[in-house]
Amino acid sequence: MNSTGTPAQAGSHALTALSVNLNKVALVRNTRHLGIPSVTRAATLCLQAGAAGITVHPRPDARHIRSDDVHQLWALLKEWPQAEFNIEGNPFHNLMDFVRTLKPHQVTFVPDSEGQFTSDHGWTFPQDAERLKPLIDEAHALGVRVSLFMDPQPEAMAAARAVGADRVELYTESWARAFGTPDELAVLTQFADTARAALAVGLGLNAGHDLSRENLTRFLREVPGVLEVSIGHALISDALELGYEATVHDYLRCIRDSRDA
Q1: Per the residue annotation, which of 64, 84, 169, 209 is the catalytic one?
Q2: How far apart are CA 3 and CA 23, in angstroms?
C-alpha cells in the first residue's frame, strides 16, 4: 500500500476494513441535553470490538455530529494508533476546516447540499472536476488521503483518478434496494464492473450507504478489491438490540464470510 492508501496492486488478500459511522449516535443524543448516548463511548466500544476505524459526517447544521464531537474523536483516536479516522462531507461547506485543523487519515468528499436529508448521489465528471482538484491537492499537501463519493458508473472512474482522488467510495444505496429482488444481479454486476474500472486506473475502493448484515457478504463476495466499508445506520440500529460488541463482531463475521466463500 502506498502513502495515500491506494493498494499497491489489485487482488490484495487483506480483509475489508470496517469503519463505523457514528452520526446516528449523535442524532439520538441531540434530542436531549444529557450528553447520552456518548459518541466517544460508542467509538471506544466499537474499536474494542474490532472495528478498524471511525467515520463521521459533520453537516453544516450540526443536526447530528457536532464540531466538538469531531475534535473529541480525534483526541480519542490518538489512543488507537492502528485505527483510521474518516471525516465525510462537502468540501465546499464546512469539511475543509476539519481537514486543515485535524489532518485525518482520510477525507471523503460528498456532494451534499447543506440541508440534505442524507447522501443520495455522487460527484459528476467532468462537471465537478475543476472545482474539486484544488481541494484534493490541498488535502494531499496536508498528508490526507482523499476518497470521492461516487455512483457505480465504470466510465467515471478514470476521471476520478485523473482529478487526483486516491480512492472512491461507491454509493451502495441502489444495491441495498435491489438486494433480494429480480434486479439484484444486474445491480451487483454494475458495482463489480465499476470496481474493476477503479482498480484498473489505480484507485483504492471503499463502499458505503445502507449496507447491512443482510446484504454485506454478497456485496463483498462479488465486488472485487473493496478496502473499506463505512456503515452507520444499520449498524447502530442493530446495536440498539444486540449491543456494540456483538454487532461489530457480526459485521466482521459478514466480512470474513465474504472472503471464505
Answers
A1: 209
A2: 28
Question: From the first residue on, what is the mean pLDDT of each consecutive set of 10 residues in the chain (261 residues)?
Answer: 35 80 96 94 98 96 92 97 96 95 97 63 89 97 98 96 97 96 97 98 97 98 97 97 98 95 59
Residue 4, domain member (yes or no):
no
Provide the pLDDT for residue 152. Answer: 97
Q: 130 catalytic, yes or no?
A: no
Residue of 57, 64, 169, 228 marked active site: 57
At how many degrees (to 10) do helices 39-48 and 67-77 cross?
Answer: 30
- Residue 57 falls in the annotated catalytic set: yes
The answer as to whether 156 is a domain residue is yes
- Cell matching residue 208: 458505503
Amino acid at 185: L
Number of independent structural domains in the chain = 1
pTM confidence score: 0.90
Residue 183 counted as domain residue: yes
Is 233 catalytic? The answer is no
Q: Which position among 64, 84, 88, 228 bears the catalytic label?
A: 88
Answer for the pair 59, 89: CB distance below 8 angstroms, yes or no.
yes
